[in-house]
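We treat protein structure as text, and this decision shapes the records that our systems exchange. We quote a single record here, exactly as it is kept in our systems:
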Amino acid sequence: MLGDLIGHLEKEEHRILRDTVARFAKDKIAPIAAKIDEEDWLPEEIFKEMGQLGFTGIMIPEEYGGFGIDPLSAVIVLEEIAKQSASVALSLMVTSVLFGHNVAYWGQNEELKKKYLPRIASGEIIGAYALTEPDAGSDSVSIKTRAERKGDYFIVNGQKMFITNAPVADVFYVFVYTDPSKKKEGMSVLLIDRDMEGVTIAKKLEKMGMRGSPTGLIFFEDVKVPVSNIIGTEGMGYPQMLKSLEIERMVISAISTGVSLAALDWMVRYANERKQFGKPIGQFEMIMKKIADAGAQLDAVRTYLYTYAATYDEERDNRFESASVKFLASETAVKITLDAIQVLGGYGYTKEYPVERYMRDAKLLDIGSGTSEIMRFVAAKSLLKAGKII
């Protein structure tokens, strides 16, 4: 049956984790999922509750209060939460993985890590990952935010756009150029607190989907950032970007599979219950084809994702796997959610059922973290670089 192969990749602790997260998501998130979407509301108290259970500590080392570095656990947590609310899962991924894990993995200042990571892991504060700019989306090397060193400080000027969690984040993982003349070798990362003078959160963007995971613009105007807030060393921003995007694309695929599972569940339930012409619509060939295709495609991509997460090695080049699983998972989510609307017919197009929300949320997943077009470019480039397949 669906997911049986995945069960062989999980250890007992993973199964316990899944059950715990699933219960929490059904009890705490499912009842307010429609409200989160309708009001574009991030329930910050949910993060504190997730912190008490350890969910906000995914991919953060235990010595900083985290769950530990286990990509498969991160995939399980995000998938289970995404079944109930993809927007909560997205904001969790950003604060815990894109901010928390990157600070833990790349940070060399122990004092800095102790300052932020325990509070991220506990859900006390929320982090954001600030890379994208108005003129630098897929072409991330073209960022224009600058950090000029003045003694013991950097003076930061620039802006970031489409930043998940920006309206609510307490601290930002910001990509800047400390030496633009060196191009990508001059890129660095700074941690910038929301309350530093010169930081402005310009606006909260109104989005079609992923409502409840707030997205905004950030302006930096002569922001004075201590040199000690650098992550890694000067000029190490580009390698950080590559590796962080690699991990992001793996774990965001779990949000895609979570949405897909929820949509397929509605397809199956509705097809069994809804009767037309004297029999359940699930007995009609075209409905059966949609359900069969959805099940097969989802099982294939989930097995790929879980195998990749279970065997992930942070020290190797995983760009092909991350890019390919990302576009496969996100495009599968878009297709399954659209098919779910079609199976439910007029009901699927109304807010009476959640499948229209699933579709709106799914569309972001094949745009954010690298569009499907860019993912195919990355995957093809990796294969071409290898020079041979067999």
Q: What stands out?
A: The longest strand covers residues 153-164.
